[in-house]
Amino acid sequence: MANNQKDKKITIYIDDVPYQVSTDNNLLAGVLSNKLNLPYFCWHPSMGSVGACRQCAVTQYMDENDTRGRMVMSCMTPVTDGMRIGLKDSASTKFREQVIAAMMTNHPHDCPVCAEGGECHLQDMTVMTGHSSRQYKGEKRTFTNQYLGELVGHEMNRCITCYRCVRFYKDYAGGKDFDVFGSRNQVYFGRQKDGALESSFSGNLVEVCPTGVFTNKLFSAHYTRKWDLQSAPSVCAHCSIGCNTSVGERYGSVRRVMNRYNHNINGYFLCDRGRFGIGFVNSSKRIKSVKGINTKVGEPSIGMFNEKSFAKEMAQHRGEHFIGIGSARASFEANRLLKYLVGKENFSLGYTNQEMQLALRHKQLLTQYPQQSLAGIENRVQHGNGEKEHDLVFIIGELVEQTAPRLSLTIKQVLRNAALDKADSIGVKHWQDSAVRTYAGNTSTPLFSLQAQPSEFDQNANGALVLSPQQIINCLTRLTNMLKDDFAISDTVVMLSGQIISATESVGSDNSDVKSSNHEDTFLLLLARALSQAKMPLIVTGLSLKSPALLAAIDDLMACLSQQSHGFSPELTIVAPECNSVGNLHFLSECALSIEQVIEQCASSRDVPTSLVILEQDLAQLSNKQSQQLRQHCKTMIVLDHTHNDSTQMSDIVLPVAAVSESNGHFVNFQGRLQRFYSVHIPVKPIMENWHWLSLLAKHLFNHHEINFNSLEQLQSFFAKHGEPWALQVLTCQREQKNQTSNGVSRQTHRASGRTAEMANQSVHEVKTYLERSQNGVLNYSMEGSDARNSSNMPHAWSPEWNSNQSIFQHQQEVNGELINAANENLLNLSLSVYFDESPQVSVTEKLDKLWPILSIEEPENLIAIQSLPWFLADQQTRCLPEFILMFSGNTVSIPTGIAEQKNIQPHDVLKLFIDGHDLFAKAKINMKQPDNTILVSLFDLPHTKNNFSLALDSISKATNDEIADFQQGELNRVQAAQQEKSDILVRLKKQDKTIPIAFYDIAGDFDVDNTGEGNG
Amino acid sequence: MTNTTPNDSSSSENWLEQALAQALTKPLTHLINLENPLDFNGYIKAGGYMGATKALKEFSPKGVLELVSDSGLKGRGGAGFPTGMKWSCVPALQEKKISTDSPFNQNANEHENSYLICNGDEMEPGTFKDRYLLEGVPHQLIEAMIIASYTISANKAYIFLRGEYFLAAERLQHAIDEAYENKWLGENIQGTNYQLDLYLHTSAGRYICGEETALINALEGKRATPRAKPPFPQVSGLFGKPTVVNNVETLCNLPHILKHGSAWFKDLSPDSDPGTKMYAACGQVKNPGVWELPMGVTIRELLYDYAGGMKDGANLKGLLPGGASTDFLTEKHLDTPMDFDSIGKAGSRLGTGGLIVLGDKHCPVAMVLNLLQFFAQESCGWCTPCRDGTPWAVEILTRIEQGQGSHEDLTQLNELCDFMWLGKTHCALAPGAVEPLKSAMRYFKYDFEQHIEQGCCPIEANKQNHQEQLVSNKKEANHGE
Asked: Angle B445-454/B364-378 helices, nearest 10 degrees?
């Protein structure tokens, strides 16, 4: 990494032994980077130092003759060349033990019932300091706990007052509803009063807290100790960022997700959608049996799969012509295999014409402005190694906090660049967190926001406008023209400098065009001037407005910015809709079919009936009419999916597919990184991995006898033999990993309790014999095997004496650095097909319109509906998580004042919206700041993929009294159903813990029926 | 030190005459009138604002700095840091400009603003010297703050006042209003083009607000926890701007140094730290009070000549020389001069110069417990040794005091003293709590041991025995009749 070269290393002496440390970080980080044990609490590698806990004290000596030294807090001490410190001297050793002893005066003795037990940083540090007996004889202070919502539990008595939670929640993540109260030894961390935490990063409190004050409620409800979890390295499937996760399982059910450090993507933090959203795999909506295939009478459907009857059934469909519809939430491999099976002329990504155009524009931008240089934009902030950092952020038409929450956390750190620069000016180091915040105050990197709805970034922006999607495009075009015309515009707008336009005044309530265009002028002048002065602007946009024209406008802007020879290096970040959207761009060419084309083909086929194989695609983006046409015209509809949805409902055959936690493959994130996810447990048949099903279809439906894959690796090898670069890349990478860890990496930590007892309810034999047969050679279902640290894909973070996630420094090259065994970056090589290559702008548009014409039926008087769902529902898969449903405050529609007046709508009126053939109901909100012709909808029943669509004014009306009653009952029912589902899931999983037959952990390729387990004597 | 109210003009003139006679020996207090402090005109008549006039019209900010540095004035808040040195760290006085190239920083090319804060959060137990100055001659402080603000190029200054000082608040606000009316505050002060706005902020009330960085946090509306240093407030203080925090008494010396010069100031106490000092005494003394005396009077003089000696026939057991957070001194230290160095050599700190005197009829363990309860209560809760160490010490002391302690408790207390000592904590609060505790355990070891061995407080027990003895004597006497 270029970063490392810039680091300056110096020598310090620790207990008279020389060590190399980096001058970019403090003494504590230097000690830890050398893998020495030094306990700490309040310091966090990403959040820096404040010097509160005093745990990391060491003795600093003036020179080699100084035997007394003085005590310093290593987290608050910069390193200097030749400095001498003692870790083992009696003074600092004793003091560190005293700190623990003092913390323990109030820490309760509830370790056995604490969800943190076994991975508690406080436990680790207590043992590390040698504190083993209690001297304190007084009473312990107690607190009342708060209800903090469905996700995070609160147990304040355990608090050791390290202030990490509030520093993360408030300072780092910008949360406003959590704080520290009280003083002396009655310091309380919580909310002003009980209530759900508002931040979408609240789950990080669980990892940030060094003990069990904040716990993962979903994990606690179905709890197991860390040492009993089998974990797997996975990749979050709930947005396109591709955060690395560690998924933990026991007895065949997923228990939790923890952050898995990735230097270049998520660092130490996840968003709550990623952390808690995994619960969808335990939903009752999961498909557990094959639908539409005649199975023999008397055969239990769970745990079984009869390939013969499947083959027989499939043989009936061999005469049909098949079109394959892939999806952006299925793995890259599965999509590739499906495309291979049906042939490229018969492959669709499930995109409408509009989405095809959008995807192609997306691909074009990615090809032209590769985003890998964006790697770790947050990391650069942490390192502060002098590399030029982003000095302007411009967010265009993408509500990042809704579509990719983790990215919004990164943007918040990028906005601190200006503050860090300011701190540099008085020599305050970046890790001196409180000093930087004191000195730089609210200093923020310039931020501009151009959105179709209010955003959380508006209030801190130097300029923020809320416009309709079309106005956004116009505005961008104007900006580009201004920049093209003359960069010297700054002369004319000097007097505007520093003037802030806020969202509140951006589009006035009076709706006067003059006024709003004035705002736009000011905004554009400010922005153009700022852009002309910025050295490294970061431009963030996305696809959620579904507007190819917007991407075209951004293309123009980027071209203009890049052409200016001002030492410019603008960077573009495009948020993709789903976890593998960018992977799908690989399959995008002029011959890919849009949904409209699929329907046309189905309808027009005369000789041979056309049928569909649909891979993990709910087709929610289709209009009602399109779905009906599709169903009507295709003969057989075979759907492979893991959760019930619209397409499984209308299909003939449903093949139950493993969800992300049970399957293997790669997702390609927004930057184009191919990232491997591993199954945390083996799916219970007939649920099988998607590639496995497709392999069976290849054999029994498509007559592709060359395909008979029993492992993902065979699939990858197959395509590698065909010379596909991605397959060669991932195979090389996987081989390297195998070489690193020839015995496979243990999925369990070393401290597995009662290895033989974990299945004792079934058998006293070690489960090893069953599980180890199903090894893929990389990860073992065992506590035995190679240490996780030897692998680039660590299933869990653990190190001797460090049982919590804090152990990650032991696996980093240095604190905040790359993992020691970081895998090579697998970047998907995207290239435009010749058809689109090197074409002038106009002709690309023409070509796109010719290939995938967008039928514009827009009436000028129509309203534009924009999705404004909360972050936890802005992903189809997590919408069945009962906790998220309970967090939803109900359907709302936000309408501009003009419409409200016109239709005489008052706030809280219940409105009826006629959308795509359905009546949907929602409570009205009236928003003065909203553009005249847009409404913001937050409707549980409307798929989030439908966005920026046109709606006739008369399709909004006030609900009748009966309808209001029905609506209210419906809202109530949803909440009650979610509560019921929440308890049902627990009952079911806990029952399953006791009854799951061992044989369900069967070898993946072996279809023999065996549910009895090995007999034991 | 009683001031008679000047009822009529003649007695008023009389009073002023008497007061002015002491101008050169008691600069800080000669104009004090607790009943009826001088209003603006009265203060002017008494020679007020002459120091400020001189500073603004005859001196450059650097000139004032040099004068004050030369005077050797040391901070009177407790630490005794040279005032001139503190000021000289302000970037404005270092000709080192901070530049940022961000187009959004409007102050990029302007002179960076700095702030002056007067620390009037006098919450040290046994200390009431600042109150005397604040209530008795409020204009003196305002004049002083004009001089200091001018020196460090501050256009905004704050008085951070202890919340319970209602009368001082009222009088200060009145004086500030008068100063604005008379062009001593606001824009264009006395036609000099210098601008200063002065704000009075009354504290919500925490001892820790006396720590300058906690004070700054409190003033910003944040939690009153001390900040990590460096950077020091002179570089990054209030709202991140260069800030100087000075004690009330320190500031009040300024008009007189300006008026009479640094040589005069040094001559006030030729054998000691320069200037006069507000000394006070409370506890088991006959005549508690506050006196302005030349720096370096001995403890004996203060205790016997000014405070009237011990009360009720008690014998001196020990004393805290400068507020609650200083080490005990005993009989043998009585001839120690009360200045920063001498008291330091004797094993304590001059602190605020307010004696707290313990007699032999009171229990030293109970006194230390009382002090530790105060410190535990007032801990801000930021760092572990203070937050969890002080309540732990209270827990142990409570048991010892109630006669339920053990010898291991004494070991534990000693360890806690070590645990909370300087360099290990985030600020000086916990070390301040350790000072009386540790020294008490050294000087009054016998008393601690007696509590443990007798299972009760020996002094209380003696008192009770004495009472019982009296009762039984009386009974016997009655019986005899």
From this structure: 100
